[in-house]
Amino acid sequence: MSALNDIPVETLSFEAARDELVKVVAELEQGSPTLEHSLALWERGEALAARCEEWLLGAKRRLDAARAAAADDETPGADA
Fold first, then answer.
1. I need a surface site. Which of 2, 13, 77, 78 has the fewest CB within 10 A?
2. What's the rounded Cα separation, in Å, for the pair 12 and 17?
3. Is the model's pLDDT at 79 over the cut of 80?
4. 40 burial via Cβ count (<10 Å: 0-12, 13-18, 19+)
């Protein structure tokens, strides 16, 4: 079994990247037949982790913006 996937990381949803990252970690923990394969898994895992972080930071920015907008709406004298 190989967790390596040909789908470009930058096109993956958060859930798809997270699920593939779990598979990559599991395969790394089992040990790969070659050093080259292990390195490829590691590189893919790093890219997947970065993609997940990108999604999470984007979600945090959206939440922060929504909270700020809600706070502005509750401010006395705010334009409606």
1. 77
2. 6
3. no
4. middle
